[in-house]
Design goal:
The complex is a heterodimer of chains A (120) and B (107). Chain A is mainly beta. Helix content of chain A is 0%, strand content 50%. The chains are: A mainly beta (120), B mainly beta (107).
């Protein structure tokens, strides 16, 4: 059974940092692209970042987070990370980890999400 | 950036009725559109990918159609468990974008 379990969310002040983790199981992690998608309160889903699988671990970012967020993966731990620096109030959202067959693809399985609140 | 506009914002129907949800793209996205179902407190679930392909385990009452800029998700006969928000997502252009969602309420 596929599982994605996010952790690391919480309350942080503007300008602060957080690192989100997503632990995967039940599928061949290294072969899948892994993404972070967020949903701000009362808003729709927003793609944040993706890192490719299958030996090509290039990454892509939404303009809103480029230069502040960094995605990475550790295939030995079946885990994908999102390092979030210089956090802003408008980064407040539930952050979902999601897997898919392609970096520019659909997401065939999602985690339950972790809440990040940026507030003073 | 491709903007996806979903309509209606809310759809209130009775069990057994047919639901038709629309997703309109601001530019041609070929058939690279997916649909997701999202219930409060749960992970989103992939329903349809590349316009008309049902994901694994998705009931046949869910179907997708369209191409170019206009797309439709149809739920042929609503079940009580179909109460959720439905979002579309395009993968034709970077950045990948989502629509704002349609809330389906079951009377």
């Amino acid at each position: 059974e596929e599982q994605l379990l996010e952790s690391g969310g919480g309350l942080v002040q503007p300008g602060g940092s957080l690192r989100l983790s997503c632990a995967a199981s039940g599928f061949t992690f290294s072969t899948y692209a892994m993404s972070w998608v967020r949903q701000a309160p009362g808003k729709g889903l927003e793609w944040v970042s993706v890192i490719r699988g299958k030996g090509d671990y290039s990454s892509y970012y939404a303009d809103s987070v480029r230069g502040r967020f960094t995605i990475s993966r550790d295939n030995s731990r079946n885990t994908v990370y999102l390092q979030m620096n210089s956090l802003r109030v408008d980064d407040t959202a539930v952050y979902y980890c999601a897997k898919g067959p392609h970096a520019n693809g659909w997401y065939d399985f999602w985690g339950q999400g972790t809440l990040v609140t940026v507030s003073s | 950036e491709v903007v996806l506009t979903q309509s209606p914002a809310t759809l209130s129907l009775s069990p057994g009725e047919r639901a038709t949800l629309s997703c309109r793209a601001s530019q041609n996205i070929n058939t690279y559109l997916a649909w997701y179902q999202h219930k409060p407190g749960q992970a989103p679930r992939l329903l349809i990918y590349d316009t008309s392909n049902r994901a694994t385990g998705i009931p046949a009452r869910f179907s997708g159609s369209g191409s170019g800029t206009d797309f439709t998700l149809t739920i042929s006969s609503l079940e009580p468990e179909d109460s959720a928000v439905y979002s579309c997502q395009q993968r034709n252009n970077w950045p990948l974008t989502f629509g704002g969602g349609t809330k389906v309420e079951i009377k």
